[in-house]
Amino acid sequence: MPKIFPFEALRPKTDYVGMVTSKSTDFPNQEDLVHEIRVNSFSFHHVTKSHLSYSGAFQEPEKFLPFASQYITDLKNKGVLVKEKQPAFYLYEQIRKDGKKFEGIIALCGLEDYNSNKIKKHEEIRPSRLKFLVELFKTTKVMGEPTLLAHNGHLPIENVEKEKVFSFVTIDEKKHTVHRINKPQDIELLQLAMEKIDALYIADGHHRTASTAEFNSSVSSLNNDKFMCFIVNETQLEILPFHRLIKPLEPKSIDSLLESLNVNFIVTTSDKSLYDINEQNQFGIYTLGQWFKLQLKEKSQLMDVEIIEHYIVKTIYNIEDSKTDSQISFHPHTNGEKLLCQLIDEGTYSVAITNKACSFSEVRTVADANKTLPAKSTFIEPKLRAGMIIQEFEEHQK
User: Fold this and answer.
1) Which of 192, 254, 274, 377 has the greatest count of CB atoms below 10 A from its CB?
2) Packing angle, helices 61-77 and 127-140, rounded to 10
3) Cβ-based neighbours of 246, under 8 Å, separated by 6 or more
């Protein structure tokens, strides 16, 4: 079944790992992120957010991505980024400040398995993001953040010999530890265990994976037929919702909106917040400082995110493609209710729609049926830091 491969990672030297690795959520607004880029010459944001160092449009990656490529070259020359000496798997552990622990293997997976649906997807992708990532890979020749893959089998990581590479704590109070697994017998043990697992499921990183496939098909001179993945058991995943934010081109009055919603939902006002939804087929609407509770009138085989997409996004707001339409945006649950309400109250958006998170068993059902969910259907933890373990796309050996 799916195969995994060891690789020689490019990684920060131990003394620099805390300064190199990055996550945009460390900085809640763009001004803080721009400041971080200006004061920290080691931050991997110089790759992932290189457009912020260039005054031109984000739609012109050919003008700012050379900065990202030069960053990689400079840090390698300075010895800040170092190359592992032999192929290895990397055991990664993340512990959040609430004690929640995530643990799995960072390895390479083959695009052959992705193309043959042994690595399954469940979410639609945005063409603009796909295009940007392909250009990023072509220019920098690195992948700095792995795709998160889930399985329901067992990888015997407790039975392998490992050597600590580094351990550090980040600004969000998460502890990150990476161990190297490079003994041939241990690599073989994990590879044989993986072959007993029927399929892997993309939990996070649909765009990275699709972009690597496109990159591979368009560039033949590089060793780019595999992509870096973080592989965990699905029981470890934490799934939260993305909430929808809408600002229609043609504003609707509250009476018109409620009338439209009443066709398919029982609508009641709520004195309590509906940011956290605990029941399926129930939803929250926040607009004009008021929460409204929606209950679907008839039973449906659709998942909650599909109900929102069909009965509200498309039917009421005439948004045919959530991946590309500027009238809709997405609010990860972790960004909080305060910010969501602020975005509505200040008029940045007109309406917020909240829903219950789906389960990973539902995600598997969709993927096994070769179907996809609407864009931004799931917000899945863990989130890895960019620049912690890096895959290099090197020239083919002659």
Assistant:
1) 377
2) 40
3) 313, 317, 319, 327, 328, 329, 349, 350, 351, 352, 353
Higher pLDDT, 6 or 371: 6
What is the pLDDT, as a whole number, of residue 327?
Answer: 95
Q: Are 199 and 120 in contact (CB under 8 A)?
A: yes
> If pLDDT is split at 50, 70 and 90, which confidence band does 127 have?
confident
Q: How many CB atoms lie within 10 A of CB 99?
A: 6
Considering Cα of 250, then 255, then 257, then 259, what sign does the dihedral take? Answer: negative
- The per-residue b/e assignment along 311-337, b for 16 or more CB within 10 angstroms, e otherwise, is bbbeebbebeebbeeebbbbbebebeb
* pTM for this prediction: 0.89
CA atoms in the 13 A half-sphere facing the CB of 119: 29
How far, in Å, CA of 279 to CA of 204, rounded? 24
By the 8 A CB rule, do 291 and 285 touch? yes
CA-wise closest residue to 190 among 223, 164, 214, 156: 156
- Which is nearest to 11 in space by CA: 395, 397, 388? 388
Domains and CATH numbers, the chain: 4-239+380-392 (3.90.1530.10), 242-356 (no CATH)
Report the pLDDT averaged over residues 158-172.
95
11 three-state secondary structure: strand
Task: Kindly indicate the confidence band of residue 180, based on its pLDDT and cuts at 50, 70 and 90.
Answer: very high
Bridge partner residues of 286 (DSSP): 291, 352
pLDDT surpassing 60 at residue 57: no
Q: What is the pLDDT of residue 217?
A: 93
